[in-house]
Amino acid sequence: MARSLAFRLVTHLVSLIFIALTMRWMWGDYASFPPMEATSMIMGYVSFLLIGLTLLIGPLSAWLPSRFGAACLSIRRDLGIWAGITAITHVILVLILFSGVPRLMILQSNADSPRSGWLGLFFQNYESFYGWPMPRLSLIGVANYLGLISVLYVISLLFTSSDAAKKWLGGSTWKRLHLANPFIFILVVVHGLIYIQSIKGEPHTLSDILLFAFAVWIVRVITFWRAVWNRRR
Ligand code: HEM
After folding, report:
1. What range does the domain containing 11 cover?
2. Whose CA is nearest to atom 8 of ligand 1?
3. What's the whole-model pTM score?
4. How many domains does the chain have?
5. What is the tens place of the pLDDT at every residue in 154-178?
6. Does residue 151's CB lie within 6 angstroms of at least one atom of ligand 1?
7. Best substitution site from 158, 187, 195, 196 to test ligand 1's pocket, by max atoms within 8 Å of Cβ?
8. Would you say 209 and 48 are in contact if contact means Cβ atoms under 8 Å apart?
9. Cα–ligand 1 centroid distance for 6 (angstroms)
10. pLDDT by residue (tens digit) across 9-18?
């Protein structure tokens, strides 16, 4: 018990160091953005990386001797917790940034961006007394809805990542919920790609997101076919 607690503490510490180093490494690239906006984007990016890493741990454990299985599960759970914390930080900062008068670079540079208030991320006409608020179904609106679905999923995973929650939900329901992880990753990939392609061209390029997503996918496909091969033998 004490050993597993110490192991989890180490995983959390390593995750924090990973987040701090990634922030430091990316900070220079985002120097042209106001600090809060830069932090928001970096947090979104870190969360994307962490969600991808959680998807790599399952395949990794399949390549390792079975005695590492429990350790891999524990690492995956704790990385997932940090993926959730960084995603929530990203969203909170986005909501703060959009809560007042427009002052973001993206608002100045993009005609499609909401003019004021975070509700404008999801709705148009919401300020008008005439007519109903309509869902924002432009490309950026779709990116926001994909982000919203992702963060709701991530929050559900975060709050059900304990043994107590697993017991409360029941094994198969818990598993069904947690199997949504690859789906969340795809949503986040599309969300990030839309933002990078349509508004936030700098400092990232599409290939930053796509290369990592492709690496995750290829490792998972190879591991899947290896499992099929082993089984057929
Ligand atoms: C799991 C949840 C989410 C993740 C992992 C995520 C990840 C990302 C990534 C990777 C970027 C690109 C950063 C860059 O340009 O370098 C981004 C940008 C952005 N996302 Fe998200 N996102 C999530 C949820 C949301 C939600 C719910 C919203 C609210 C509508 C949102 C709003 C934005 C905005 C406004 C940007 C543009 C850059 C900024 O100001 O941060 N995201 N996100």
Report:
1. 2-232
2. 44
3. 0.89
4. 1
5. 999 999 998 899 999 998 999 999 9
6. yes
7. 195
8. yes
9. 33
10. 999 999 999 9
